[in-house]
Amino acid sequence: MTHQLSALLREPLLHFLLIGALIFVFVTEDDGSDNQVITISEGRIAQLKNDYVLRWQREPIQQELDNAINFYATTQMYLNEARSLGLDYNDSVIDRRLRQKMNFILEDIVAIQQPSEQDLQRFYQENPDSFLSDAEISFEQVHISIDKPDELLAQQIDIQKQRIAQGNTPEGDAFYVQPNFTAQSDVEIDKAFGTGFAAQLADAPRDQWSGPYRSQIGEHFVFVSGYELGTVKPYEEVKAAVEDGWRYQQFLAAEAAFEAKMKQHYRVELPEGYGNE
């Protein structure tokens, strides 16, 4: 009998059931607090009905609404019990979500504000670089495949540099990307070569071969024959973007003001000697 009891006590399933029972006793102990009451308002029921309509594109029947209410109430019970166990403490996922919700509140405050036409015009005039049309670049490129040993790739690049120094056109590997591009925007160029390639061309010398420049598809020697900077788009054309930019600026200002006010009520303590290493 003693041997059988010892074997039973070593069973992982029994350990799990005992722990579960202890948790159940702990969380179901009635402490007389208001947390034992789940209040569901008419507004909450209306929200549950609206959520159902958005998902299923029809009004719920009574049983479906009752199920939604029951699910919501049960979820609140789970949350209350989880909080009573301290499961929300020092949880990075919950912490990020709470900060996000605070940011949502700030965004809602900013959304209430309505900018005047003068506000938008001022923002447009103070931030012209935010409303530029795309630059247009014309260039020829010679592609060097990187699908080869590093030593061979370096030799091929050196040979092409020598050809350029001698006044000759570099030679490359056959590839599916066209060699010539005329008046192409940054977006179109990056779509063909990968993000950041157009920015490299902006710094390339004009009317001469230079390189190589790395892209997502290889190395390239380029001859930039034309580079037209973007111009500021007319106000009426970008008015919606101007308002978006103005609202984001207001949000950043509100966030900075809130953080400054909040930090007046807190003191940050660091380990003694921190930063002296």
Give an account of the 3D structure:
The protein is α+β, with helices and mostly antiparallel strands. A four-stranded antiparallel beta sheet has the order 2-1-4-3. It contains ten helices and four strands; from the N terminus they run ααααααβαβααββα. The protein is elongated. The chain folds into three domains: 36-88; 90-118 and 240-267, no CATH class; 136-228, Chitinase A, domain 3 (Roll), CATH 3.10.50. The model has no long low-confidence stretch (mean pLDDT 84). Strand 3 and strand 4 form a beta hairpin.
CATH topology label of the largest domain: Chitinase A, domain 3
Strand content range? 5-15%
Under the CATH scheme, the architecture of the largest domain is Roll
H-E order: HHHHHHEHEHHEEH
Number of strands: 4
Alpha-carbon distance between the termini?
63 Å
Fraction of residues in H or I helices? 40-55%
Number of helices: 10
Strand order, largest beta sheet: 2-1-4-3
Biggest sheet layout: 4 strands, antiparallel
Shape: elongated
Radius of gyration (CA) equals 33 Å
Task: Describe the SSE topology.
Elements: H1 2-9, H2 12-28, H3 42-56, H4 62-84, H5 92-112, H6 117-126, E1 136-144, H7 150-165, E2 180-185, H8 186-193, H9 197-202, E3 209-215, E4 218-228, H10 239-263
Antiparallel strand pairs: 1-2, 1-4, 3-4
Helix pairs in contact: 5-10, 6-10
How would you describe this structure in keywords?
4-stranded antiparallel sheet; single chain; alpha+beta; 10 helices; Chitinase A, domain 3; 277 residues; peptidyl-prolyl cis-trans isomerase activity; 3 domains
